[in-house]
Predict the 3D structure of the following.
Amino acid sequence: MTHRERILKAIRGEMPDRLPFAPRLDLWYNANVQAGTLPERHKSRTFDQIARAEGWALHKINPEYQKSRKAEDNLHWALGILSYKESVFGFRFSPDMDVEVKESGGRTKIIYHTPVGSVSTTTVYTEEMRKAGVSNFWVEEHVLKGPKDYRVVAYIFENLKLFRDDRDFLKWKEEIGEDGVPFTLAGRAASPMHHIQKYFVDATDFYFHYHDYAKETQALAESMGGFFDEIIQQVGDSQAEVVYWGANFDDMITYPAFFEKDIVPWIRKAADILDRKGKYVSCHCDGENLGLMDLIRDSGMHIAEAITPAPMTKVPIEEYYRRWSDKLTLFGGIPSILLLRESISDEEFEAYLDHLFKVIAPGRRMILGIADSTPPKAVFERLVRIGEKVEKEGRLPLEAGGFRPLIQPVVPEAAKPVLREIVWDEECRQVQNDVLEGDQAAIQEHIQSLLAKGVKAEEILKRGMLSAMEVISERFKSGEAFIPEVLLSARAMNEAVKVLQPHLGGTQLAGKGKVLIGTVKGDLHDIGKNLVITMLKGVGFETVDLGIDVPTPAFIKAVEEHKPHILGLSALLTTTMPQMQAVIEGLKQKGLRDRVKVMVGGAPVNEKFARDIGADGYAADGADAVTLAKKLIQQE
Ligand code: B1M
C-alpha cells in the first residue's frame, strides 16, 4: 500500500495496512539548512527527499508561504486574501478599486481605495524573520480601526472575484504522487467571523470590536458570506481530495461560545457540500482543545490536523482518540517537545511512544504526525525511531494493551479550584455588577453617584471594583469565564480607575507597582501577553507594553528608562525560551538585576525553567500573573 492510499484510507475511516506517518519538516529543515546542521546523510537533500529517503509520507498540508510564485500571492495577507501553488483559485479585486502599494525595508503599506472610502494595512516580513524560519507575516497595521472601516472592507469582499487557477496545484499533486496527499488551501479562517478575528483586527482588540461594534461586525461577516461560498465552490470543483479549512483553533482564542456560534456553522456547511463532492475538510487544530472537544467532534470536519496532546496541552492523546475517533480522523498526536532532548529524556520519549501505540488501538482514523511541526533543535534520530516503530509495530489493527497512564487525566478533580463567589456589598452592588458585566459606560456613572453620596474612593475601589475583578480572575482560571469577559471587565476597571484617581488622595492602587512586559526576541505571539497586561492593569498595576519580538538590549534599555518594579517576559516557542535567560544575564551584566524582579510566562515555560534561569517567578496564566506580581511587589 502506498502512503497516499494509507492516508486516504485513514481519512475514510477504513483500516490501512499500517499507521500512516507524515512528519512536518519545514521549520526544522529551514533552520538547519541556515545553520548548516542537517544530518550528514541528508546534507544536500530537500525536505521531501529526506522524508522519501527515510520512508515517511510527505506532509503536504501547510502552504509554503514564503515560496510564493509572485509578490501578489502574499501581498494582501492583512486582508487574508491569499493564493499559492497549493491553491486552486486566484482572485481579482473590483476594477473600480485602486490598490496603492508602498514598500520599504521589509514593511509593506497598502491603501485600498474604493468608491465607498479607503482603508489601509501594513505588514512586516524582514530578512531576520525569514532567517529564523518564520512563515507568517506580521500585521503591524490592521485594516479595521474604527466603525467607518467596516463598510469599505465589506465592499472589497462583496466585489472580489475568484477564478480557477489550479495549474500549479496539479503539478504539485503530480510531484507528490503516491508519497502523500496534497491538501489545498481554502483559507486559514474557517468562517467569515473567524476571518475578521484572524486578519482584520489585533487579536486582543477583536473581542472589543466584537462587543462594541456588534452590529457592524455581524454585518461585515454576512457580507463576506459570498466570498466563502465561492471558495467552497472552487475547491469543490477542483481535483483536490482534501481541503484545508481554518487554523489555530484554541479554547481561549476561539472560546466555546464563539466557536459554536460563529465558526461551527461554516465548518458544517463546507463539510456537507464538499462531502457530497467526495472531498474532505481538514482543520488545523493546533491549540488547546480542552474546552472545544465536543464542538470539534460534532462540527462535521473530517480531519482534525496538528492535534497537540499533553504535555503540551491539557488533553492527553487517549482522551482525543477515545472521544473523536468514531467521527473524525486525527492527524498529529506526537507533541513536538517530545523530540527535544532538553525537554524529554530518551526513556520518556520511548515511554510516550509505547503508550501512544496502546491507547490509539485499533489505530483506525489515525495519521501520526509531529504537532504542530518538527522543531529546529529536534533530535533527528527520534524521528527515525518513530518511523522504525511504525514499520515494526504499526501494523493495523493495533492491539490495545494494559496501558500505563503517563499523564494526568483531564483536569484532575482534586486540582479544581474552589470558586470564590461574589459577596454582594449593598452600597457597591452596581459597581461590582458593572465590573462583572464589563460595562465601561455604566461604571463611570455609578462611581460618580457613589462619590456624590460621600462614599470614599478607597471603599469603592476595594469593596466594589477589586473584589469583583478577583472573582472574574478566578472564573477565568477555573474555565468558567473566557478571554472576552476578562478583557471587558478589565477595561471597565481601567475606565473606572480614571474617574476614581483624583479622589484617591495618597492611596495607591492594589498593585502599587509598575510592570514592564514584552514577548522575547524571535517570538510573535502576543495574545497571552496582552491578556496578562490587561489583567494587571485591571487590578491597578501600571504597565508598559514593549510589544513582540523584543531584543535583549531593548529590554535592558527599557528597564533603565522606566525603572519598573517587575519585568515580565513572555515566550510561546521552545526556540525562544532561551531568550529569557539572555535577558536575565543582560540585566546582571548591567548591574540591574537587583533592581527589578523578573516574572516569566507562556505555554512552554514552567516553574522549573523559571528557577533554572534565575527568574523570580513563573505564572501559568493571567490570574496567576496578578497574584505573582502582588507577591513580588511585597518582597521588594
Ligand atoms: Co503559534 N505556536 N506559531 N501561532 N500558536 C504555538 C505556540 C504552538 C504550541 C502550536 C503547536 O505546536 N501546537 C507552537 C509552538 C511549539 C513550541 O515551540 N513549543 C507554535 C508554532 C510552532 C508557531 C510557528 C513557528 C508556526 C510556523 O510558522 N510554522 C509560528 C511562529 C511565529 C513566531 O512567533 N516566530 C506561529 C505563529 C502563530 C500565529 C501567528 C498563527 C498565531 C499567533 C497570533 C498572535 O499571538 N497574535 C499562533 C497561535 C494562535 C498559536 C496557538 C494555537 C495559540 C496561542 C495563544 O494565543 N493561546 C499555540 C498553541 C498553544 O499554545 N497550545 C501556538 C491563547 C493565550 C491566551 O494563551 O499564549 O498560552 P497563552 O498565554 C497564557 C499563558 O501562557 C500565560 O498567560 C496567558 C493567559 O492565560 N502567559 C503569561 C503568557 N505570557 C505570559 C507572561 C507572564 C505570565 C503569564 O509573565 C510575564
